[in-house]
Write a structure and sequence with these properties.
Largest sheet: none
Strand content: under 5%
Number of helices: 3
Pfam families: PNP_UDP_1
Number of domains: 1
GO biological process, one term: L-methionine salvage from methylthioadenosine
Protein name: PNP_UDP_1 domain-containing protein
Radius of gyration: 19 Å
Number of strands: 0
Distance between the termini: 33 Å
Keywords: Glycosyltransferase, Purine salvage, Transferase
Organism: Caenorhabditis japonica
Length: 90
């Protein structure tokens, strides 16, 4: 799966956007490893803890930044898009 449609739509609407993926197995290219539901769930459980830590730290860092200029630029870009009228965003 990709996040491409969501990233493009968020950008067009002037919404800052980031994504995270939790990889659970590599069976698409590591033929010598047998993937089972149990092994996927074990890795997923470990990834959940890593993701929690990542999000807590990321939110703290994001909160330290003044995003006003970035948000303003994205709103200007959104207003300039061919399918949006200036009155859509305030």
């Amino acid at each position: 799966m990709t996040m491409m449609p969501e990233c493009i739509l968020a950008k067009e609407l002037g919404i800052p956007y980031a994504t995270t993926a939790l990889v659970t197995d590599y069976d698409c290219w590591k033929e010598e490893e047998q993937v089972t539901a149990s092994s996927v769930m074990q890795v997923f459980a470990a990834n959940v803890e890593k993701a929690k830590k990542l999000f807590v730290e990321a939110v703290g860092e994001i909160g330290k930044v003044d995003w006003s200029d970035e948000i303003r630029k994205m709103k200007v870009n959104c207003r300039a898009a061919a399918y949006n009228q200036p009155s859509v965003l305030h």
